[in-house]
Amino acid sequence: MIFGKKGDDAVRNKLSAAPAPYGQIALRLHELVSEIAPALEPIVRWGLPFYVKDGNDICYIKPDKEYVVFGFGEVVNPAFEEGAHMHPVAWTISSLDEATEQKIRALVQKAAG
Prior knowledge:
35% of the residues lie in helices and 27% in strands. By secondary structure, it is an alpha+beta fold.
């Protein structure tokens, strides 16, 4: 069972409380995830916005005072590479540009697929 505050408003409220400019970056990431994978359920749990599908954590956003962490659940890690010995599950983001947004789009599409 998932405990926490569910829904778009709960996530937006949590992210908008982050210091500038990272609150704005976090809100943009929320918009991207919502646009790319509208079937994912947004929920605030353990103080972090998560995006859930069928009870599994797909991705999350963790704003900080110096960056935003954007990560994926280990089970549905879209950056997994067969044969690799290390697999990234989270990235720190200090700003967003078109190229970064495109990379995030591709990862979310793969993870939510």
